[in-house]
Write a structure and sequence with these properties.
Elements lengths: L14 H9 L7 H26 L5 H20 L1 H11 L10 H21 L2 H28 L8 H28 L1
Helix pairs in contact: 2-3, 2-7, 5-6, 6-7
Length: about 190
């Protein structure tokens, strides 16, 4: 959630406030959103480079690389187009309490399915690259899912503009960006 509840182009008290919103990781449609989308797209391109090489080699896991590249292209699109917000809005309109966790519920199921699908692929990676992939995924998922779920639960107790929730929001983005940075490092090391 966005504790500033406004977009950077809206009427704000001052030019400084508008500038802050342009660089605030909690607000959407700004420079940090673009950066996050860009590094996810860089990951998709690096994965595609590897996928093409694996495809030419007829590698057993070539389709895993292709799927990963496609997924990261979609993650990049979601980061700048907020596609997960539509899922959240739908889930939040449902009457069951568990569905109030918004997009995190289907995302958790998705992560589990993808994890099962990619387990054999992950086990075949060189140990150092496998370790980096696990670190990258752990950092990213901690920020994207775990901290998001914690935030949803804390919203029941704390106001949206509380220091705790604002800090939690910043930590979410920090862990996501760190996870993607580690992945890019791993992919460059693999290439």
């Amino acid at each position: 959630g966005n504790p500033y509840a406004g977009d950077p182009s809206a009427s704000t008290p001052s030019a400084l406030a508008k500038l802050v919103l342009r660089f605030d990781v909690i607000a959407e449609g700004n420079i940090p959103s673009w950066y996050s989308g860009a590094i996810l797209l860089i990951s998709a391109v690096l994965l595609l480079v590897i996928a093409i090489d694996k495809y030419v080699q007829r590698d057993r896991f070539r389709w895993h690389w292709i799927v990963l590249s496609g997924l990261f292209a979609l993650f990049s699109l979601d980061e700048v187009a907020y596609l997960h917000e539509g899922v959240s809005n739908f889930m939040n309109r449902q009457s069951l309490e568990i569905l109030q966790l918004g997009w995190t519920l289907p995302a958790t199921v998705f992560v589990l399915v993808v994890g099962v699908f990619f387990a054999p692929f992950l086990l075949r990676l060189p140990p150092d690259i496998r370790r980096l992939f696990v670190i990258a995924a752990s950092l990213f998922l901690f920020g994207a899912l775990v901290l998001e779920i914690v935030e949803r639960l804390l919203l029941e107790v704390y106001p949206l503009q509380s220091v705790l929730l604002i800090t939690l929001n910043h930590l979410q983005d920090l862990f996501e960006m760190l996870g993607v940075a580690v992945l890019i490092y791993a992919l460059l090391a693999y290439i």
